[in-house]
Amino acid sequence: MGRVMKPGQTIGILGGGQLGRMMAFAAKPMGYRVAVLEPKTDSPAGQVADVEIEAAYDDRAGADKMAEACDVLTYEFENIDAETARHLENTLYLPQGSQLLHTAQHRLREKQAIEAANIKVAPYHQVTSREELSAAVKQIGVPSVLKTCRGGYDGKGQVVLKAAEDAEAAFETLGGSDGKELVLEAWIPFQKEVSCIVTRSVHGETGVFPVGENIHVNNVLHQTIVPARISRFVNEEAIRIAHRLAEHVDLVGTLAVEMFVTEDDTVYVNEVAPRPHNSGHYTIEACETSQFEQHIRAVCGLPLGPAGLKQPVVMTNILGEHVEAVTAHMEEWSKDHVHLYGKDEAKPGRKMGHWTVLREDLQDAIDRSSDVWKQYIEK
Fold first, then answer.
1. Which fold has domain 123-186?
2. CATH of span 190-376
3. Where does the record place the ATP-grasp domain (predicted)?
4. Mean pLDDT per 10-residue segment, the chain (379 residues)
């Protein structure tokens, strides 16, 4: 049985980004203190923490400081090297453990774990040499996607092969010639991208949030629409998959499961993230319990909250190139729910905040989101 954290105890968050910030916002009303470890001060999470530890994620001295400061540790991103994660698990109370991190941060291990749970993924082939890539292209065909096994997100670390002749250049671009591990995946002709966020507590209680329909622009999540415009079968299948994966990996905390849906309603898992997720930000206003509060409840040993949808909702990401238009016309955007993360530099493509629109009717929420976006962003 996991421990129960009492109000007044300190939750340590590894990572100082917006997910850590929103975890802290959820933890504070419940009476917890928050400590954040991040390589620089004044991070989005550090701004709202009680304790801010400036240290690299693999700095053992920083980990020791964190151990002194907090009673339970969680993380807001998965790319922590396995040795550091094991050290943290041995040094602090990390109810999520290090094994799921080890799996989720490596695409090949991730796919093997999903397959082991009897869940569909796109056909794939490990690539460690030009010869293996050539064989993989012959087996899988084109179009296909060559990806790095580590470190890719928001479309980074991947190249689409539209013809077999593209393989050599893609191999070089992704660092295959320098010994990077790669994986070639078949292209799935999907009609929709959806995600389902599942939470499981230290006591084994499990809950899922409503399935979200995700729209990407330039490989970055643009909008999440809930309820997703999918068949009842796909909705139930997505929830079944999320529950199955949570059980299979012995989840503690939060797991976001991103999926492709084809024209014949076949569902493939694309990837997973063992933490709260961008596509779950809508839960802050639209659900009875947010993904962040649910995560805090799970790692602190509290009962999970109800996760039902209160109203149809559209969540839209605010990137660096959108910030000026949002802040210049805040009186319009703030008629709905604006979240800005306190990041120091608004770079193009960088997630700076999100905007949430709730309405009694889903189409009204979609129309409101579209109208404001066209007026101020696409003008």
1. Dna Ligase; domain 1 (3.30.1490)
2. 3.30.470.20
3. 111-300
4. 91 96 98 96 97 91 90 88 78 90 90 96 94 94 93 77 91 87 95 98 97 95 98 98 97 98 98 96 98 98 98 98 97 98 95 98 98 93
Distance in angstroms (rounded) separating the CA atoms of residues 30 and 296: 9
Q: Where are the strands (E) in the chain, listed by range?
A: 10-14, 33-38, 51-54, 72-75, 124-127, 144-148, 158-161, 182-186, 190-200, 206-208, 212-217, 220-226, 253-262, 267-273, 313-319, 337-340, 351-358
Q: Give the annotated binding-site residues for ATP.
A: 107, 147, 152-158, 185-188, 193, 216, 270-271
Which segments are annotated as binding site? 107, 147, 152-158, 185-188, 193, 216, 270-271
Return the domain boundaries, the chain.
10-94, 123-186, 190-376
Stated as kind and residue range, the H or E segment containing 121 is none
For domain 10-94, the CATH class is: alpha beta
